[in-house]
Predict the 3D structure of the following.
Amino acid sequence: MLELWNVYGLPLAFMLLHIGAIVGAVLLAVAYYTYAERKVLGAMQRRQGPMTVGPFGLLQPIADGIKLLSKETIIPSQANRAVFVLAPMMLFTLALVAWAVIPIDYKLVLADINVGILYLFAISSMGVYGIIMAGWASNSKYAFLGAMRSSSQMVSYEVSMGLVIVTVLLCTGSLNLTEIIMADRPAWVQVMLFPMLIVFLVSILAECNRAPFDLPEGESEITGGFMVEYSSMTFALFFLGEYANMILMSAMTVVLFLGGWLPPFGIEALAVVPGFVWFVLKTFLIMFFFLWARATFPRYRYDQLMRLGWKIFLPFTLIWVLVVAGSLIAFDALPE
Amino acid sequence: MISAIAFYLFALMTVFAAIMVITAKNPVHSVLFLILAFFNAAGLFVLLGAEFVAMILVIVYVGAVAVLFLFVVMMLDISFSELRQGALQYVPIGLVVGGILLAELIFIFVGWHIAPSAMDNRITPMDQTVQNTEALGRVLYTDYIFAFQVSGLILLVAMIGAIVLTHRRRPGVRRQKIADQNARRPQDVLDIQKVTPGKGI
Amino acid sequence: MSDFSLSSLMPLAPELFLAVAGMVLLVVGAFMGNRSLRLISWASVVCYGIAAVMVVSGDGGRAETLGGMFVMDGYAELIKIFILVGLAVSAILSIQYLYQEQILKFEYPILILFSGIGMMLMVSAHDLLSLYVALELQSLSLYVLAAIRRTHLRSAESGMKYFILGAISSGVLLFGISLIYGYTGTTNFALIGQALGAEISLGALIGMVFILAGLAFKVSAVPFHMWTPDVYEGAPTSVTAFFALVPKLAALGLIARLVFEPFYPLQDDWVQIIWILSAASMLVGAFAGLRQENIKRLLAYSSIGNMGYALMGIAAGTTAGLSGLIFYMAVYMIMTAGTFAVILSMRRQDVNLEKISDLAGLSHHMPKLAYILAILMFSMSGIPPLAGFFGKFVIFQSAMESHLYVLAVIGVLTSVVSAYYYLRVIKVMFFDTPAEPYDGHISWGRWIVLAGSVGFILLFIISPSSLLDICRTAAVYLIPSSLS
């Protein structure tokens, strides 16, 4: 019995603890990300933002949460119940599951798998199902239009995201996220990757359905898009899922381009600060970018969005993959 | 033990989902179960140690191909139960064909006899220390470069074919021409006139 | 691991050149749009010429490369030359037709080019894997070409039909390949030959049957011929011409390599299969053709019958049979080219005609064309001293030498039967009441094809042995030395 406990029980308990810690941290981050969004938007528009609930409005997210939980869940009579309820759960679960492979610090990762980056990409590419299921199951025109927009948008931008990831992999020679962070990248390689960082940043905006690419829920045209029929807890799950996804994408950018937990610019002196702090700070930077973009740009038109994805990003990333691969070979800088 | 539990979980889910694909009344449910089947198949691949194939299966099939499936099925207004109405009358034929195939398979397995040189010809398994992404890359770009490149040509032809057969230019559609918009200069389109008060233009 | 010196790619040079040329032409077309159709067509013809020169200038010896996936020998060389000629002819024949029928798609010649690459790779395949990818490259282009006129119901239908049946046949082929791989442990032709030479298992036998069935679909041998008449009729006529000219030559070349290299130890078994395919094709081709009113359908059945004769050459299993097959296919290709050049010229009030009865009075309005078609039809039905006669003669002779008497008798009888429908075309042209005249203009490219075709048929008698000798030298490459 004791042996069984030692072989299975203890690791399981430890793993559950680890999972709990990650989920707790992400949920807390999501809650205060919504707060941060309103504060940042407020500041950019010379407003105060939330400020009445608690000191500086700090308790606002909790109040919002309680409000959503205490409302009645409405399921439209014409909706496909099972799929309707499953959709937000799926979106939210996927947003959490992906965190399993994100290395917060050296060896501080739940599952250090060989194909970590592919896992991340796979999970994020499945996110589209939550939305498309929600849109279809709602049995409503607006919801369905939103789902259609979103699925084509996400599938389109995944193509260029995939090519961006390929370029990064060329420079690091591994699919493991820890090794990607640790890989030795010369300065000129970093410079060559910079355009890909831009493409990636724009693509994650589209992938998360965030402004200026928030057409799936474009309230001026299709009222609320795929979540127009959702209320209360189901809506809350969508909301949580969306923000968790944004944080995840930010972390992904940090892992791929910004050197994860390593101190910025390779300055040794900064290594006294623990790695995870750097990781979190860098992630905050990208998260701020999401809000900044929302406050700055007007929403794209649908054909413009598709044009950007297929006619600009796709050819550019394709060519850039060749350019980077070619220069890596020419300067004999391929990893391994 | 854990891998055994995981195997039976994934395998049972795959079989269950596969059965639901063909029995579900609603076509959208069928596609969703198909996706579930793909996902569980990916799980089985992971158990086999083929993590690369598993992830590619999810990215390509679940993430892209099945989305398009779902897209089409959702937009088509078809009722599978109507399509299936006549299906029962074909059951005898199906059974005959299936029976013949089964008999053939039994024949083969009874007469199962691997040629002596077959074992020698078998490609030796890859080095276990190499990750399977790398192992795949090593053979794909060397031993199988020919098949790989010709597959590339096939995909090119498929792309040309898809464009030839579906692309059409509809007359009377107003398109945004960004180059034209950028080339517009104020002096071409603006005409500044002095307006004297009380007179109009 | 194989090495990637430039020399290892030399045997592949013509295909590589064509692939690059195809992509360049694609880019040209993408930028210039459909008005570049004529330019791209002629450019592709020039490319075929260059590729042919590259094929000829190879050292002629046998060379395996890319890990044994690709082989270049005298046999492949000769068939590739024929394929390239066929591709060039079908491109030349198409141009005027495409402009007349307003099928202005610059992708058309490019698809022909890519399917041509597929065919050339097919004859050089030396591994089941390369066989499959080459076959798919060729077939996929053909499916698209059949449906290229998608606004016309017939064309779309024929493309769809061809695609679905083709996909099923590919599935059958793959099933066979998997069985062969399972029972011999390899996909390489030479190693399969060795494994089967050591021991023949039931599984491998079944695998071979499936592979031959899948390939029989591609050459439209009975009972896998159902798609042929519909696709021939539905596809635009220039595409039909292309279908009739080249793909079957490549598929037959592939079957011959397959049965003589990896499956040689199974000769007793595959001879029976080929025997049945051949006899059935000849019979169906002859009898089903009798009632056709549409000339494209007629030619579809004629091609089914001709595949029967060609397969007889493989069934013979000797150098004589194989050289007869190559020779027969070459002559058939030349005759078909001429015939389609005439059919493509059958236009009245800007509409293409496809009925046999529409030929009435051709001798009155365009005697030159009528006499050319008459010569072609005489040759097709095997009247001496025209080239078509020699083709059949060589095949029958090789069958007799291999003691396939029944097959040879069926061949003679069916060619007598099929002579009826060839001669009927002549009768309609010369003796039926003339209808309205045709639209006169025939492009010079088409005249060249007509002149070449008829010239070959008439003048062949002067030196019959020269082409036969070339075919024989090529055939020797494939037949194991024990026989030749």
